[in-house]
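TASK: fixed-backbone design
INPUT:
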């Protein structure tokens, strides 16, 4: 008989080795092992002829660390990957379903709500809309600014209205836009507002001469008046009984000034064919000119230089309707429309101060044109007179 080795704690056996080894082999022994007790080898005889080793391994206290869950994750990575794939796929199906549902389903149309502003809205059957609009816009309406009265047109009244229809297209809702009403009335009144034109006098060594005649200006006494009236009449527009708006206008008197009122001033006398140059009220230069011909005169009045070109091709029409073209005109200073002070190279020097022959421009010799171009910036006042 061959014995097997077991590791059995000595303190737990509580037995003595039997004298008869055969009895010991048949005796059932259950080893109890702990990691803290002394381990002793035990040999047990078995009746079988084969030797069967039965290892008894003492248990030890486990120490968990970060490597254990990572190791488990690695060993089960296929399962984790499968779950993540299914999760992402399900999310994609849901998002795609919502996208195609939004494209295929008809849009939801919000139901139009009836205006709730008292007196500023009405509801009419759809077949009666045009008749009602004609009644509202055709009512008598006027605006008085100062002592002048003008009518308020049907198109203006129509611009105050907004129209919506219900989803069933059985009713139309008409309501008044008070802000649009106030703005259009203010725009009409502003046409009567004007700045005063100061009277300009000059003295070239003799008596004073008026080169610009003064005109009074006008402004609205209280611009808020029309806004207040618009708020009141907005509630009666639908009644189509007529509207009368008014706002006072106050006169603004002009002043009498001399060249000292201007920083830089160019004065062109088309009768004497002379250009006077003032700076801070002082006459600093005088040049001879060739101004507009009798059939194409130079416009008279107070203007300002608005554009400048060192050189420019000029073209237009003669008084008889034929076309003209003048290439590379130098030192161009536009002061109104297509009229400018510029250099002229196609006339002899004696021409200036003697003959007016332009299409309305103030022509000067080329060197004079260059001086003016460099001296007069955009915004310089130009006064032309007879």
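OUTPUT:
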């Amino acid at each position: 008989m061959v014995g097997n080795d077991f590791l059995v704690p000595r303190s737990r056996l509580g037995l003595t080795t039997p004298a008869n080894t055969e009895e010991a082999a048949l005796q059932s022994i259950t080893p109890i092992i702990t990691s803290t007790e002394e381990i002793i080898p035990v040999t047990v005889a078995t009746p079988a002829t084969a030797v069967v080793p039965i290892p008894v391994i003492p248990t030890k206290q486990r120490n968990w660390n970060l490597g254990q869950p990572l190791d488990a994750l690695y060993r089960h990575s296929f399962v984790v990957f499968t779950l993540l794939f299914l999760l992402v796929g399900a999310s994609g199906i849901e998002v795609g379903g919502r996208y195609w549902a939004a494209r295929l389903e008809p849009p939801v149309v919000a139901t139009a709500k009836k205006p709730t502003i008292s007196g500023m809205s009405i509801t009419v059957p759809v077949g009666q809309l045009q008749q009602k609009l004609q009644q509202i816009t055709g009512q008598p309406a006027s605006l008085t600014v100062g002592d002048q009265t003008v009518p308020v047109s049907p198109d203006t009244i129509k611009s105050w209205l907004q129209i919506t229809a219900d989803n069933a297209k059985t009713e139309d809702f008409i309501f008044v836009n008070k802000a649009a009403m106030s703005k259009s009335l203010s725009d009409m009144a502003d046409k009567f507002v004007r700045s005063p034109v100061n009277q300009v006098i000059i003295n070239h060594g003799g008596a004073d001469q008026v080169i610009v005649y003064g005109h009074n200006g006008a402004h609205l006494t209280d611009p808020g008046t029309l806004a207040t009236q618009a708020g009141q009449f907005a509630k009666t527009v639908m009644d189509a009984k007529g509207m009368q708006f008014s706002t006072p206008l106050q006169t603004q008197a002009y002043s009498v000034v001399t060249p000292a009122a201007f920083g830089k001033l160019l004065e062109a006398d088309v009768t004497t064919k002379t250009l006077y140059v003032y700076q801070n009220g002082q006459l600093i230069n005088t040049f001879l000119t060739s101004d507009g011909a009798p059939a194409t005169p130079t416009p008279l009045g107070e203007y300002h230089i608005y554009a400048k070109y060192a050189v420019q091709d000029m073209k237009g029409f003669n008084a008889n309707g034929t076309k003209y073209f003048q290439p590379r005109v130098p030192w161009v200073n536009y002061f109104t429309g297509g009229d400018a002070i510029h250099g002229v190279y196609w006339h002899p020097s004696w021409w200036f101060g003697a003959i007016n022959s332009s299409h309305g421009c103030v022509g000067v010799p080329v060197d004079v044109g260059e001086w003016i171009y460099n001296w007069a910036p955009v915004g310089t006042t130009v006064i032309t007179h007879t």
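COMMENT: The mean pLDDT is 81.
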